[in-house]
Write a structure and sequence with these properties.
288 residues, mainly alpha, Rhomboid-like fold, 2 strands, 64% helix
Length: 288
């Protein structure tokens, strides 16, 4: 019987993660390790580091230091805080990314996180001007997306029987709503706003709008900086295929068959394809 080593199993599991989740988890863990090491050697410098990248719900700071609306998502207040966010992102986010693609997933994640932070500016006069760190708002947006894509999917929780995804997510949101304004230091409003933004983005996507197009300019800029950007040949646009840009296509050799597969992805997601269709898409995507 073949016995794989623990290290190889971890490595295989890590590289088996969808691309966007793998990058998000890697950055979060790396930053947390840096925070921990820094706090051991110099708590003062650790506090300076967190204060430099946390989000403060003040419109002046949000206006003149807009990067904080992104960087706060990669800071965490403790190991349990990080573990909670990354496990939910892994458990529920994997199916979301595999269904919608890495670009659309990234828009959902960062859109919910940024939206949650900005909404906190409105709520701060009532709830307090407290700094915010953590990916919880973004993760709540992904959780809502999962519940909308797979509402009846059973989720196993400790000490509970299998519960449908829509009820689990709704229950977590309800708990945050009940604890809104509590003195436990948790930015509940960011969680709720992140969930709300995730819902709105999913509804916007369901109406036929391509969320992934918001990522393409950033991706193209990155490739230009690397000197590897190649402009794709233009071809007639099919207005009904709103999620096609999340599928990497180099060159089509059988346009009609490819369009049929991409149309099915736009309606049912990648997981809706048969094994034969997935293989055909893979072959067409790798032809020059």
């Amino acid at each position: 019987m073949y016995n794989d080593s623990f290290g190889n199993s971890v490595k295989r599991g890590y590289w088996g993660l969808p691309a966007a989740i793998r990058v998000i988890v890697t950055i979060n863990v790396a930053v947390f390790i840096f925070q921990t090491v820094l706090s051991i050697f110099s708590p003062a410098y650790s506090n300076l580091f967190v204060n430099a990248f946390a989000f403060y719900p003040e419109w002046q700071m949000a206006l003149f230091q807009p990067w904080r609306a992104v960087t706060y998502m990669f800071l965490h207040g403790g190991a349990f805080h990080l573990l909670f966010n990354m496990l939910w992102l892994w458990w529920l986010g994997r199916s979301v990314e595999e269904s919608m693609g890495p670009r659309t997933f990234s828009v959902l994640f960062f859109g919910a996180g940024i939206g949650g932070a900005l909404f906190n500016i409105i709520a701060a006069p009532v709830l307090g001007f407290n700094p915010v760190i953590g990916a919880s708002g973004a993760v709540y947006g992904i959780m809502v997306a999962f519940a909308m894509l797979y509402p009846t999917m059973p989720i196993m929780l400790i000490f509970f029987p299998p519960i449908q995804a829509r009820y689990v997510v709704a229950g977590l949101i309800a708990i945050d709503a009940l604890l809104l304004g509590s003195s436990d230091g948790t930015a509940r409003i960011v969680h709720l706003a992140g969930a709300g933004v995730g819902y709105l983005l999913m509804k916007y996507h369901a109406q036929g709008n391509d969320l992934s197009r918001w990522v393409l300019p950033i991706e193209q800029l990155w490739y230009r900086l690397k000197g590897t950007y190649q402009k794709k040949k233009s071809r007639p646009k099919n207005d009904n295929m709103y999620s096609v840009s999340d599928v990497e296509i180099v060159e089509e050799t059988d346009q009609s068959e490819l369009d049929a597969i991409l149309e099915k992805i736009s309606q049912k997601g990648y997981d809706g394809l048969t094994d034969e269709e997935k293989q055909k898409l893979f072959e067409l995507s790798n032809k020059n």
